[in-house]
Amino acid sequence: MSLLSTPAQPLVLIRSMGPAHRERVARHLLALAPEDRYLRFGYAAGDAHIRRYVDGIKFGRDDVFGIVNRRLELLAMAHLAYADAPQRPSCAEFGVSVLRHVRGRGYGKRLFERAVIHARNQGVEQLLIHALTENKAMLSIAAGAGARLVRDGSETEALLQLPPANFDTLLGEVLQEQLARSDYRWKRRVHMVRQWLSG
Ligand SMILES: CC(C)(COP(=O)(O)OP(=O)(O)OC[C@H]1O[C@@H](n2cnc3c(N)ncnc32)[C@H](O)[C@@H]1OP(=O)(O)O)[C@@H](O)C(=O)NCCC(=O)NCCS
């Protein structure tokens, strides 16, 4: 699993997001269609639910990763929430969403890989994904990474055992983050110039 590009996997820059990006995260989730909100949250999340969810993200404790376009819109994002349940020590839960018009480009899978590397570097031993059984794309990503799928009617729990961090995961994450941050800064400058030019 490489975080950087290979001939088969073009480079996708994923950066970690902080509290300054909360509104961007909200805009991304609010743009999801009702059926995608259902797949993402497991219930028919209205705008107020999404606002509460976003307000509740504990940046600094949880991790959020994102892929932005040139206009700095968040095209895809993943939330890695660390569990504090005693029956599941060193476990993190993964949630992801990709805007419809950019699906099928591998963003969901790359976000998953990024979260796996980060979780390993944090000493997390298990990654948990709650998905609806009908969610073929999410379950395909989890199964492809070797997760054990436990179906319980309309819901499926995917549990991936994570090996410990190593030199590659540590270095790979630092490089990916540096590249993604430089790219973001550059996009932000271009965006500001464009806005200034358009008055
Ligand atoms: C699930 C989701 C994130 C996938 O994003 P994506 O960027 O389109 O997925 P990718 O392009 O990375 O595809 C990942 C894999 O799923 C497979 N896949 C995609 N759509 C599929 C479908 N409808 N049925 C079966 N497999 C599918 C792809 O072929 C790919 O497998 P491969 O790597 O073996 O080729 C996206 O569909 C989404 O945002 N859904 C709504 C929110 C959601 O369901 N979140 C997950 C619950 S937390």
Outline the structure in words.
This protein is an alpha+beta fold and 199 residues long. The protein has one domain: Gcn5-related N-acetyltransferase (GNAT) (Aminopeptidase, 3-Layer(aba) Sandwich), CATH 3.40.630. It is 41% helix and 23% strand. It is built from six helices and seven strands; from the N terminus they run βαααβββαβαββα. It has helices at residues 22-30, 34-41, 47-55, 107-121, 136-144, 167-197; strands at residues 15-17, 63-68, 74-82, 91-98, 126-132, 148-152, 155-161. Strands 1-2-3-4-5-7-6 form a seven-stranded mixed beta sheet, sandwiched between helices. Helix 4 links the parallel strand 4 and strand 5. The longest helix is centred in the C-terminal third of the chain and has 31 residues, at 167-197. The relative contact order is 0.15. The mean pLDDT is 93. Bound molecules: coenzyme A. Coenzyme A is lined by residues 36, 39-40, 95-98, 103-109, 131, 135-138, 140-141, 144.
Summarize it:
By secondary structure, the protein is α+β, with helices and mostly antiparallel strands.
